[in-house]
Amino acid sequence: MSYSVGQVAGFAGVTVRTLHHYDDIGLLAPSERSHAGHRRYSDADLDRLQQILFYRELGFPLDEVAALLDDPDADPRAHLRRQHDLLTARIEKLRKMAAAVEHAMEARKMGINLTPEEKFEVFGDFDPDQYEDEVRERWGGTDAYRQSRERTASYTKDDWKRATEQFDAIHRRMAGLMAAGTPADSEEAMDTAEEHRRFISGTYYDCSHEMHTCLGDMYVSDPRFTATYDRIRPGLAVYLRDAITANAARRTA
């Protein structure tokens, strides 16, 4: 039994372009070719793709994934055990962070002041009050700031959670494109950048392409924003900025 590249892309939830890229770099070469030269993937190829996607989800770069999977002494069960341990640790960390964020949101909603210990437990070395002061100082006189304050004033906890999840999903898709080697000025990356701009416009304030470009520059110039995006995927801040710039140029052209 073998499968076409389109079928495998559908099974795995990746693009055909990603599978082509994996083949080009030797990470996942299909076991067979049709008489017409088309890629055909075996069940063993699908098992390897599953391992690749597990490691990619855990943040491993492609070269490290290749080294792990091509280790002749590695036991396939050892890969699964390692991935299970890493995922379990991540789940526990995210569970604790989610609980801490909910605690902070409830405290803000009820007008309760968090203690310094509680605040830094949630935000690490990032002080939200200091950040709010800076935001007000830098943009307090702008229409965007006023519009954002007006829109978010009535947001409930569920509204914030939904907005955060949607924004995170856009960032993860952008990181996925970057990981697959998709150029920042490709149609896929520019379309995702446009979705990023429209999300800001629909959730916070009207964000023109010009303003979006300024935001992209800030993601790279401000170390705090850079660190936030690069925690998702090293280099994502620059990649996102470049996709935003390319999308703005496409739209204005």
Shape: globular
Distance between the termini: 48 Å
Task: Work out the number of β strands.
Answer: 3
Order of strands in the sheet with the most strands? 1-3-2
Given as residue ranges, the uncertain stretches (5+ residues, pLDDT < 50) are: 122-135
Portion of residues within helices: over 70%
How would you portray this structure in words?
The protein has 253 residues and is mainly α. Helix content is 73%, strand content 3%. The protein contains 13 helices and three strands. The chain has helices at residues 5-12, 16-24, 43-57, 62-69, 76-109, 116-123, 128-139, 143-152, 157-179, 187-203, 209-221, 223-232, 236-252, and strands at residues 3-4, 32-33, 39-41. A three-stranded antiparallel beta sheet has the order 1-3-2. Helix 1 (5-12) packs across helix 2 (16-24) and helix 5 (76-109) packs across helix 6 (116-123). The relative contact order is 0.07.
